[in-house]
Amino acid sequence: TVIVPTGVTPDNTLSLDNPFDIEINSVGNVAYVSDIDRAAIITLDLDTGARTLLSNNTTSVAASNIDFVTVKGIVLDADNNRLLVVDSSQKSIIAVALNTGARTLLSDNTIEVGNSTFDLYSPRYIGLDAANNRALVLDGANLVAVSLANGARTILSNASIASDIELSSQSDLTIDIAGNRALVADLNRNSVIAVDLNTGVRTVLVDSATSVEGIDGFQKPLGIAIDPQNNRIILVDWWKRAVNAADLTSGTRTQLASASGANSLFTFGTGSVVYDPKHNRALVIETYRDAIIAVDLTTGARVIFSQ
Asked: What is the DSSP string of 57-92?
């Protein structure tokens, strides 16, 4: 069964230029990609890979009160019909309406927000903790909570909170709703760190000491996503050019796609990953090729989904 395209998509008037993060909207059968060089959010059709523009600075969008500079992490806030976008240059969190692409400022350092105790310095990736009505943002060695009600910023976890491991060089995060924790990929520590959503206490879920089944492809975790149907996380390893899985309970690692074969993932070129349950695949950002690679989670086969 062919479940993904096998070549570049035909709408080359809207190419990917330095894509950074990817998020999925299964209900809408689309994915969203943040594109740094275009300063834009691009929508991808999950069946065809066709690209359409959702929001950028060249299109006048009613109700917008902020332009993009350097878009990075994105997350879907489905209850509010919007994306939450990190702009690292502006040190801000921007809301983008899904129906119009209108951009509004949720939080930044230029506005005094009630009860804020932290200013953003180098924000990158973002996750949604809907149960607590907040977004979680990776900023240096800090995991920052941003209220969805008023944009107030507080520290959820950093070195000031006693724990057996400190955050070091975080590369991505995802929210494990069932486990009431954020899962953070940390490049320097070669680990996936679990952060309790109530206390901010950190524990190691996956590292080099975690049990392995089959081939060990784990070394430098970058992109991370939850696959709840199989009780696992999906990890992109940019050092070994592999896509791996780790059990959410035990941390046991298995390799899903190796570095060999067609459309292998380039060293240092891979980035974010998202789980696509409808097609049983992972969609991986391939920065060097300005492409999205689809990885079949049963066979490990890879095809270029959109480029």
From this structure: SSS--TT-----SSEEEEEEEGGGTEEEEEETTTTE
Do residues 291 and 39 touch, judged by C-beta distance below 8 A? no
- Do 230 and 258 contact (CB within 8 A), yes or no? no
Structure tokens at 34: 């943040």
Q: Are 212 and 249 a contacting pair, CB within 8 Å?
A: no
How far apart CA 284 and CA 16 sit, in angstroms, is 13
Amino acid at site 194: A
pLDDT tens for 22-79 read 999 999 999 999 999 999 999 999 988 889 999 999 876 777 889 999 999 999 999 9
Q: How far apart are CA 61 and CA 159, in angstroms?
A: 41
Q: Which helix (DSSP H) or strand (DSSP E) does residue 184 occupy?
A: strand 181-186
List the end-to-end C-alpha distance of the chain, in Å, as a whole number. Answer: 22
> Which 8-state DSSP code applies to residue 212?
B
Bridge partners, 243 (sequence order): 236, 257
pTM for the full model? 0.92
**Cα(8)–Cα(306) distance, integer angstroms:** 6
Q: Across the beta sheet with 232-237, what order do the strands follow?
A: 221-227, 232-237, 242-247, 253-257
